[in-house]
TrEMBL record:
Gene3D superfamilies, A to Z: 3.30.450.190, P-loop containing nucleotide triphosphate hydrolases
Keywords on record: GTP-binding, Hydrolase, Membrane, Nucleotide-binding
Domain of life: Eukaryota
Protein name: Ras-related GTP-binding protein C
Localization per Swiss-Prot or TrEMBL: Endomembrane system
The keyword Transmembrane helix appears for this protein: no
Catalysed reaction equations from the record: GTP + H2O = GDP + phosphate + H(+)
PANTHER family: GH16429P, RAS-RELATED GTP BINDING RAG/GTR YEAST
Gene: LOC108561487
Region (Disordered): 1-41
Length: 388
């Protein structure tokens, strides 16, 4: 068994809705692999696990590489661990490891510390269109093994391929899976393990919404971002606002009011429109990217609602939903937005400073921690040992 160090990215030109190279996630030919962020921080790792053909690679390709869902029909089975560096705005930096379905982690040949040690979240994908009893057994063994190694991991179960299911069947599958999985953990004495469940499909926005929630749990600054969005909403009569990572369309934060799926979908569609129109009409010869500080968009819906998008930085956009009447005070909204953008920059700067200081302290005082983080080289060794 070997692992592949970073994904062979699908060439961006192949996909009609793809971004140019300098706009995308992941690593491209010629770039260096680096499991550290530019500030020297160890990137959290997200593991994608589940049985064969459950849909792991499809999820990763659709969310982070703009592959259209239909193209995933032609994906070949993964036979190595595929690592993908997601290296975008400073809030969205992590590595995704896509595991082949046939790997058995309970097998003693694998060092669980190398796999689960630096892991932030473990996504276990269950194909709900198939008989999922084996998947539930594997979920149990994977989660318990991971928890024994690293109790800080967030466990996320994607009840996947729910397209074509009615609301009742979706709820029933979720109830069954939730009940069986949690009961088996409690019976085994692991009642402290918390599993989060998400109904997902690559054929609609549910996969982006679920990934948004996974990523948000890995952003320590989330409460600060939510607070800033709440303040912006209150002072600008905005009903709902999302801070989007433009490339993947996952939202890294929203205000404290509940998310309704329709609003999220509308905002995602708006991002698509803005990016597409920008790339058709907005790119000048001397420009690399069409999404810049002047990017903004306003869409009036026929129900008296307005969608308003503003660029926050190269990779982030704020998308707000508000009543048309309240948009009469556009000047105030724009002024408040500038204050919001400045505050976000300050959060970035503070985070970078803290990380640099922490790294200096770690280098000085904790060689063990560094050892634990140096997963790449060691991992290669360990997984190659399997071959021998
Ligand atoms: N209907 C439906 N099919 C899906 C969905 N996601 C993935 N698939 C299909 O499931 C099949 C397997 O997808 P893969 O992404 O290759 O599965 P995998 O888990 O990576 O498989 P291994 O690499 O063998 O472990 C493909 O034909 C996909 O098109 C979904 O949300 N709905």
């Amino acid at each position: 068994m070997s692992y592949q160090d970073d994904e062979e990215s699908v060439p961006y030109d192949d996909h009609p809705n793809s971004f140019p190279k300098n706009f995308g996630y992941g690593q491209y030919e010629g770039e260096q692999d680096n499991s550290l962020s530019p500030t020297g921080e160890q990137k959290p790792r997200i593991l994608l696990m589940g049985l064969r053909r459950s849909g792991k690679s499809s999820i990763q390709k659709v969310v982070f590489h703009k592959m259209s869902p239909n193209e995933t029909l032609f994906l070949e089975s993964t036979n190595k661990i595929v690592k993908d560096n997601i290296n975008n705005s400073s809030f969205v930096q992590f590595q995704i490891w896509d595991f082949p379905g046939q790997i058995d982690f309970v097998d003693s040949a694998f060092d669980p510390h190398m796999i689960f040690g630096g892991c932030g979240a473990l996504i276990f994908v269950i194909d709900v269109q198939d008989d999922y009893s084996d998947a539930l057994l594997q979920l149990h063994s994977t989660v318990t093994q991971a928890y024994k190694t690293n109790s800080n991991i967030k466990f996320e179960v994607f009840i996947h391929k729910v397209d074509g299911f009615g609301d009742d069947s979706k709820m029933e599958s979720q109830r069954n899976i939730h009940q069986t999985a949690t009961e088996s953990l409690i019976d085994a004495g692991y009642d402290q393990i918390h599993l989060s469940f998400h109904l997902t499909s690559i054929y609609d926005h549910s996969i982006f919404e679920a990934f948004s929630k996974v990523v948000q749990k890995l952003i320590p600054q989330l409460p600060a971002l939510e607070n800033l969005l709440d303040i912006l909403n209150t002072n600008s009569a905005i009903e709902k606002s999302f801070l989007f990572d433009v490339v993947s369309k996952i939202y890294i934060a929203t205000d404290s009011t509940p998310v309704d799926m329709q609003s999220y979908e509308l905002c995602c569609d708006m991002i698509d429109v803005v990016i597409d129109v920008s790339y058709i009409y907005g790119v000048r010869e001397d420009q690399e990217a069409a999404f810049d500080e002047k990017s903004s968009s306003l869409i009036k819906l026929n129900n008296g609602t307005v969608l308003y998008l503003r660029e926050v930085n190269k990779f982030l956009a704020l998308v707000c939903i508000l009543r048309e009447d309240n948009f009469e005070h556009k000047g105030i909204i724009d002024y408040n937005f500038l204050c919001f953008r400045k505050a976000i920059q300050q959060v970035f700067e503070l985070r970078n400073k803290t990380n640099q200081m922490l790294n200096m302290c770690n280098v000085a005082s904790s060689p063990i921690m560094n050892g634990n983080n140096l997963v790449d080289d060691n991992n290669e060794e360990i997984l190659n040992d399997e071959d021998n």
